[in-house]
Amino acid sequence: MLHRREMAAALAAAGLVPLAARAQGAWPARAVQMVVAFPPGGQADVTARPAAAALERVFGQPVPVVNRPGAGGIVGSASVARAAPDGYTALMALSSLGVLPESERIMGRVPAYTVDQLAPIARITADPTVLLVPASSPWRSVEEFVADAKRRPGAISFGSAGNYSTLHVAMAMFTGSAGIDLLHVPFQGGGPALTALLSGTLDALASGPGPALAHVREGRLRALASWGRERIPGFEEVPTFIELGHPEVEFYIWTGVFLPLATPAPVQERWRAALRQACERDEGLRRALDAAGSPIAYQDGEAFERFFRDDTARLVRAVQRIGKVE
Fold first, then answer.
1. How far apart are CA 144 and CA 138, in angstroms?
2. Mean pLDDT over residues 12-30, rounded?
3. What CA dihedral angle connects 124, 129, 134 and 135, to 10 degrees?
4. Which of 250, 73, 254, 253 has its CA nearest to residue 176?
5. pLDDT tens per residue across span 42-79
6. Is 170 exposed, middle or buried (0-12, 13-18, 19+ CB in 10 A)?
7. What is the layout of strands, in order, in the sheet containing 157-160?
């Protein structure tokens, strides 16, 4: 009897059989909610929707995407940190997840959540951000942009998904290296900021390549540089900041799935197995992310935990350099 129980537990933990041994029956027994802490249209949303569709095929249950924006991602992230740890509420997070609690401390507030309230499950994508300007703008290179910014300190605006968000931190790295002063305009998420850039009410934006690609191809936006160590597929003609003489300007906007920390280990592993299967075998997911210019860069287990820890430490140092934003 003991041997059979051990075997059942091992198989369940590996995601090879449903958690039928539990009194509540097989997991998942109902819809699984994926929270995006930003409005539709941003990088997290662009990743979450095809990922949720792929997970529906794996789980055999609906996986609705719920946009819960507010405070640059704090509201939605905190809601998952406080959610019931039953595996039915997950967060599709951005790299700002680890930055926002530190930003709250800098502003003298008690963080709405801390990273140790969430369990890292898997990374889906990891893309360098891209510096975008309207195609109608006068800047055709970073050199022209920097020269104009030095002539008119504080006159050129840039948007972000909120104070200390990934898009804000990326631009702060660039402006600090270039020695320029821009006007920061925070939005509720990357989607609204991108809309403002397209409408001409913003001058510049650091964006994930996924949401930007179609607009660049259509000639509505111009990409001046990227924050990667190498050029981005789909943006092969766009130089990196490192190429342009800014060796410290390197930044990646990644998407990853997190669960409340107390979620049972077998359920966490079921999520990892499902995400791994979706990313490795689901052609619909792969095509959707490739078309969006944000290819799969899957990582889970100890590798993702280490990546998340190291990336968060680096970004927290950048936020501490930014300091208090009035």
1. 8
2. 56
3. -90
4. 250
5. 889 999 999 999 999 999 999 999 999 998 899 999 99
6. buried
7. 183-186, 157-160, 204-207, 130-134, 221-226
> Both tokens of residue 211?
């949401």
Q: Per the structure block, which two tokens stand in for 243? A: 């190429």
Q: List, for residues 217-226, the tens digit of each pLDDT value.
A: 999 999 999 9
User: For residue 86, with 0-12 CB atoms within 10 Å meaning exposed, 13-18 middle and 19 or more buried, which class applies?
Assistant: middle
Q: What is the DSSP letter of 82?
A: T
Collapse the DSSP code of 85 into the 3-class scheme (helix H, G, I; strand E, B; otherwise coil) and give the result: coil
Q: How many residues in total does the chain contain?
A: 326
Packing angle, helices 43-59 and 265-281, rounded to 10 = 100
Indicate where the chain has its CATH 3.40.190.150 domain(s).
Answer: 2-127+253-322
- Rounded to 5 degrees, what are φ and ψ at 268? -60, -45
Q: Which fold has domain 130-226?
A: D-Maltodextrin-Binding Protein; domain 2 (3.40.190)
Neighbours of 64 (CB within 10 A): 11
Q: Are 250 and 227 in contact (CB under 8 A)?
A: yes
Q: How far apart are CA 187 and CA 101, in angstroms?
A: 18
CATH architecture of 2-127+253-322: 3-Layer(aba) Sandwich (3.40)
Two tokens, residue 74:
């704090």
Alpha-helix residue ranges (DSSP H) falling in the chain: 2-13, 43-59, 74-81, 100-106, 142-151, 166-178, 190-199, 209-217, 265-281, 283-291, 301-322
By the 8 A CB rule, do 184 and 174 touch?
Answer: no
